[in-house]
Design a protein that fits this description.
Layout: E1 12-18, H1 25-28, H2 38-54, E2 61-72, E3 81-91, E4 95-104, E5 107-120, H3 121-128
Length: 138
């Protein structure tokens, strides 16, 4: 079984988020502006990348972030909606490389690349002594 049999160049996904005060750099760092923080933009890019291949992986496998190279090009205030977009651009022996972008309306606010490794979840959890926690959507 090849982990990448169902993954192809060009596969894409989006993650949309409306910016809240908790997503701003000012929420985490005192005296900083209340604008979309770079770590949150990266998280949203990673979520889009993971979503683009998740349903195409064999049962029991997930993708995990390995490398991020992005530029944050413009500030986005609270209340705006951001779209993080990912596209598979390269498939390697143990990972997938994505082109990622973030948009605030018609304005590009971020771009770069992101690499995700493919892991067997049970083996990964055993190796690092972690377990998957149930998430509440409330």
């Amino acid at each position: 079984m090849n982990l990448f049999d169902n993954i192809t160049i060009g596969m894409a996904a989006e993650h949309t988020a409306t910016i809240t005060p908790e997503m701003t750099v000012g929420h985490f760092v005192e005296h900083m502006p209340q604008v979309y923080g770079t770590p949150m933009m990266i998280l949203h890019m990673e979520m889009a990348a993971g979503a683009s291949i998740a349903s195409h992986l064999p049962e029991g496998f997930v993708s995990v972030g390995m490398d991020v190279k992005v530029r944050h090009l413009a500030a986005t205030p609270i209340g705006r909606t951001v779209r993080a977009i990912s596209r598979v651009m390269q498939i390697e022996a143990k990972s997938v490389v994505f082109e990622v972008e973030a948009w605030d309306g018609a304005r590009k606010i971020g771009d770069g690349t992101h690499r995700r490794g493919i892991v067997n979840l049970v083996e990964f959890e055993k190796r690092f002594g972690v377990r998957q926690l149930a998430m509440s959507l409330d």
